[in-house]
Amino acid sequence: MAEDIAPAEGADKSKKISTKLLIIIAVIVVLLAGGGGAAWVFLSAGSAAEGDPAKVAVVRQEALYVKLRTPSGRPSFIANLAEKNGRQRFLQIYAEAMTRDQSVVDALTKHMPLVIHELSTLYSSQEFTDMQTAEGKERLRKQSGQKVQELLQREIQRPGIEEVFFTNFVMQ
Description:
By secondary structure, the chain is an alpha+beta fold. The protein folds into two domains: about 55 residues; about 110 residues, Tetrahydropterin Synthase, Chain A (2-Layer Sandwich). The protein contains five helices and four strands. Strands 1, 2, 3 and 4 form a four-stranded antiparallel beta sheet that branches. Helix 3 packs antiparallel against helix 5. It starts with a helix and ends with a strand. The model has no long low-confidence stretch (mean pLDDT about 85).
């Protein structure tokens, strides 16, 4: 009888060992396959970006800000605003243009009198009630950017700037 019990215990032990060994091997295979797959993705993505110009990441240049000001250095625009009841109102704006190209900064500096004229004309044509809303101010800011882009398109054959920002906006 002792002989009958011993072989059964040995079979259970070998079965437990082989099941544990099989699980360990399966885990190792999965980890190696996952690591190899991840390495392949990272390495192939790097080599594809180097070889294909369409896949190369675009590096953005640093933003450059140009104060829109008169040649004498006055940093603000002052405009009269019309009000429907005939009362005179005033608008004062400090503005800056954003670009990422030094040649555009130089072009803006060169053509600053034209920029000042275009923006002063734009600001003087506004109505006081429109400028009291956030939407009116945002619309004017976008129109300012479009005016400067149009001017640069005429002068240097490209829009040149991304945005015009108001750094100070006062109405009386």
